[in-house]
TrEMBL record:
Pfam families: THF_DHG_CYH, THF_DHG_CYH_C
Keywords from the UniProt entry: Amino-acid biosynthesis, Histidine biosynthesis, Hydrolase, Methionine biosynthesis, Multifunctional enzyme, NADP, One-carbon metabolism, Oxidoreductase, Purine biosynthesis
MF annotations from Gene Ontology: methenyltetrahydrofolate cyclohydrolase activity; methylenetetrahydrofolate dehydrogenase (NADP+) activity
Organism: Sutterella parvirubra YIT 11816
Record note on quaternary structure: Homodimer.
Entry protein name: Bifunctional protein FolD
The reaction(s) this protein catalyses: (6R)-5,10-methenyltetrahydrofolate + H2O = (6R)-10-formyltetrahydrofolate + H(+); (6R)-5,10-methylene-5,6,7,8-tetrahydrofolate + NADP(+) = (6R)-5,10-methenyltetrahydrofolate + NADPH
Length: 281
């Protein structure tokens, strides 16, 4: 058996097309402000991809690039200026921030109603308690991918591998909200393989190449690969080994899977923010 691939790139493009229509109905373009601090090469690529996606859909992006030597106060000053600017709908501070800057403090400075990353403690609390708020883009994108294949989560056993605030924990909350039985494994879990073999859905979000191998996957399971790693030869790969294609029923590729969906959900959040600000919805 060979897994069916869930084409995140195609799904992202079709979501962008729908967003473009919603944007045309607004009195002005939605505006996404993006702050990049320092010279991390991966961050530059990601920010560039986000700016390009904005251009494709009709969102105006305003990026500010501060030097590696910028202080926490410099960063916070920029965020506050965007908080107060009524023409800015979404604020994204690209992570990771340089050493010495308290990322959580910066994130908590972003106005809750412009927190399109969904990283603010208030957004996290809203998700945890089932209230409306911005939801982190990567797990939202995963939920869209599961929905796109008509997957019914109710009563299914989902294993999330990874417990970060930006992927693992919100992912677990969203799966739980859809009535899955959710287990979270992490670097200190002794029996991840056993848990994985019992899972109907595996979300691999640990940031380690080849973490999930075919012998860990129940035949026909859905395997979602959130990993973004580089092989020594420079090739991009996820957390899921190539041989999982022969065991899984469904699989998301890297590249072209969760990554493009993450960006699409950022655009969705930005458009929703603009609609609320402009009284459209
Ligand atoms: N404030 C903040 N928000 C984020 O959402 C955020 C962040 N910081 N820091 C870094 C991570 C990572 N992330 C990715 C998004 C898209 C791709 C993506 O589009 N990947 C392409 C390939 C890109 C390539 O070729 O390198 C793909 O999977 O097909 C990857 C990674 C967002 N992040």
């Amino acid at each position: 058996m060979t897994a069916q691939l869930i084409d995140g790139k195609a799904l992202a493009r079709s979501m962008e097309a729908k967003l473009a229509e919603r944007i045309r109905a607004l009195p002005r373009k939605p505006v996404l402000a993006v702050l990049l601090v320092g010279e991390d090469p991966a961050s530059r690529v990601y920010v560039r991809n986000k700016v390009l996606a904005c251009e494709r859909t009709g969102i105006e992006s305003r990026s500010v690039h501060l030097p590696e030597t910028a202080t926490e106060e410099d960063v916070i000053r920029q965020v506050r200026a965007w908080n107060e600017d009524p023409t800015v709908d979404g604020i994204l501070v690209q992570l990771p921030l340089p050493r010495g800057i308290d990322a959580q403090r910066v994130i908590e400075t972003v106005a809750l109603e412009k927190d399109v990353d969904g990283f603010h403690v208030g957004s996290a609390g809203a998700l945890m308690t089932g209230r409306e708020g911005f939801r982190p883009c990567t797990p939202s994108g995963v939920m869209e991918m599961l929905e796109s294949i008509g997957y019914e989560l109710r009563g299914k056993h989902a294993l999330v591998i990874g417990r970060s605030n930006i992927v693992g924990k919100p992912m677990a909350m969203m799966l739980l909200e859809k009535d899955a039985t959710v287990t979270v494994a992490h670097s200190r879990t002794p029996n991840t393989k056993e848990l994985a073999l019992a899972a109907d859905v595996i979300v691999a979000a640990a940031g380690r190449a080849d973490l999930v191998t075919a012998d860990m996957v129940k035949p026909g399971a859905v395997v979602i690969d959130v990993g973004m790693n580089r092989r020594p030869d420079g090739r991009l790969c996820g957390d899921v080994a190539d041989d999982v294609r022969d065991a899984a029923g469904w699989l998301t590729p890297v590249p072209g899977g969760v990554g493009p969906m993450t960006i699409a959900m950022l655009l969705v959040n930005t458009v929703r923010s603009a609609e609320m600000r402009l009284g459209a919805k």
